[in-house]
Design a protein that fits this description.
Layout: H1 5-29, E1 41-43, E2 51-53, H2 54-70, E3 75-78, E4 91-99, H3 101-105, E5 112-119, E6 122-131, E7 139-145, E8 150-152, E9 155-156, E10 170-172, H4 177-180, E11 181-183, E12 193-195, H5 200-208, E13 212-217, H6 222-233, E14 237-245, E15 248-253, E16 278-282, H7 283-290, E17 293-295, H8 300-308
Parallel strand pairs: 3-4, 10-12, 10-13
Antiparallel strand pairs: 1-2, 4-5, 5-6, 6-7, 7-8, 8-9, 11-17, 13-16, 14-15, 14-16
Helix pairs in contact: 1-2, 5-6
């Protein structure tokens, strides 16, 4: 599929702008360790496992208004937005106003504001704000569009350097990983040092930036991953999705992300779906890596229930 690179760059530049502005708003809500500060928190479930703060809602509203004013013919799907039965336009913005809400509400400074854009179900633009200690402002925005490379705060990043697996480097895995998956015996000693970030968008960026050498992502919603998947394509990284087949894990390419997309048929509400777990890694060694990760022997029902209830 051939894209208008100038138009994608226009979308990217605007996504970068509003991601940066969203980051500044989030910064103003972030709990201060010195001053007492109340952050209104609600829960979307009875078990109090899915929190939403006033910051989530503020950013959702802010982004929706900005996008509608600049691209009125584009669709919008957001984590804190309501499900809409409107037909999806070819371009759809997929928003996670605050990825890592629980980190944020407890004052743990690992979170993200993720903006992604789909074209007929394929991630083509991403802009993600993350807090960063040595930035001039409250954080940095990593952004990219298909065929235009990827940048940090407007500065293009050179991705030509080849990366190799290193047992001393950092990796990110979901909390359930070692209950349901295993590394091959030869790879386990050099698999890397584990970190868990608590924000899927943040963890995907760590791979794109070369800070983490790979990440396994648990089942996610489109708003968790769309922006990140658009960015990693331009950072010489790839994503594979895992499927359970005959009690074995099979890693395969994700192309496109929304596989049953049909123009004039797909609705915005259809995009509020969860994905299978994913492996994110540099393209030059992701095929080697996938062969080092397999599912532990267990009933398919137990594994699937575990993945989607984590």
């Amino acid at each position: 599929m051939k894209f208008d690179q100038d138009y994608l760059k226009k979308i990217e530049n605007y996504a970068f702008k509003i991601a940066h502005e969203s980051g500044e708003i989030l910064h103003s809500y972030f709990p201060d360790i010195i001053k007492s500060q109340d952050l209104t928190i609600e829960y979307k479930d009875l078990n109090l496992r899915d929190p939403v703060t006033e910051a989530d809602k503020k950013i959702q509203s802010f982004l929706s208004e900005k996008i509608k004013s600049e691209f009125p013919d584009h669709g919008i799907v957001g984590e804190e937005g309501e499900a809409q039965n409107d037909l999806a336009t070819d371009y759809v913005w997929v928003l996670d106003p605050l990825d890592g809400t629980r980190n944020f509400m407890y004052g743990f400074p690992i979170y993200a504001c993720s903006i992604g854009v789909l074209y007929q179900g394929e991630p083509v633009v991403g802009a993600i704000f993350i807090p960063w200690p040595n930035s001039i402002n409250s954080g940095r925005v990593v952004h990219a569009s298909l065929g235009n490379g990827f940048s940090i705060d407007g500065d293009t990043i050179n991705t030509s350097k080849s990366r190799n697996l290193d047992g001393n480097s950092l990796i990110t895995l979901p909390g359930f990983f070692h209950k349901r998956y295993k590394f091959s015996n030869d790879f386990l000693p050099i698999s890397g040092e584990l970190r868990m970030g608590g924000s899927i968008a943040y963890e995907i960026l760590m791979v794109a930036l070369g800070i983490s050498q790979y990440a396994v992502i648990s089942s996610a919603y489109l708003w968790d991953i769309t922006g990140g998947l658009a960015i990693i394509k331009e950072a010489n990284c790839s994503a594979l999705s895992v499927k359970i087949n005959k009690n074995e894990s099979q890693w395969s390419k994700i192309d496109p992300l929304v596989q049953d997309w049909q123009s004039g048929v797909t609705k915005l509400s259809d995009l509020r779906l969860r994905t299978n777990p994913m492996l994110i890694a540099p393209t030059n060694y992701i095929d080697e890596l996938k062969n080092k990760i397999s599912r532990k022997n267990s009933s398919i029902k137990k594994v699937v229930n575990g993945i989607f209830n984590s």
